[in-house]
């Protein structure tokens, strides 16, 4: 059963505890609100201000699990706070660990400060949870996929377009890397896991995956320098730094270029192209 008063009080307290800079928003010279405004939280949670405001005023329908997940992420809640939110709203909390898509507040705080840099947060299956605008400019919007196609490894073997932004000489290595990584996850998560389900789908649909899978390779790590082929700026060599949240099995991937190189100049050009595309 929903605890409307408890839910409203909890939401108000979490909103008051957040400052604009905590979530990547400008403070502005005329701010008087203690914490975030309701409309700012509603935008972060991808819902209408009216809907969110009614929850804080102990009104409106019981929020769905999907809505609660959006609120928990928008308010940068910890896992314990997320679980508390779900229980106040009359729901069982989602699972934790490898299957969870709740991004930790610490990882989000870093991500929110990377708007001018290509970056993304991905799950252990390569499902993109967040992208910076520059990340979208570099690789396209990879949050738009649904079902198995959310996984970059699954797309690699089933969607030819997934290879277009990677240098052709890297394709053979990436095939081995994706098969190796998925095999390792299946062993780690077990035969009833989402990783095992993806492997079964690929074994049934991709001859290339079957050949790579049959090699039983383990431990093939991504190259630190990734070679992209962008449709507008051409070849790019970018260093990828990876920050791992072991509790949630999420990775923050940040792509940079060495100053003074051609790739650095192209990345600056891409920033201009990306900002124009968003206008």
UniProtKB/TrEMBL annotation:
Residue ranges of every copy of the HTH cro/C1-type domain listed in the record: 35-82
Domain of life, source organism: Bacteria
A Pfam family per the record: HTH_31
Entry-linked InterPro entries: Cro/C1-type_HTH, Lambda_DNA-bd_dom_sf, MLTR_LBD
GO function terms (MF aspect): DNA binding
Protein name as catalogued: XRE family transcriptional regulator
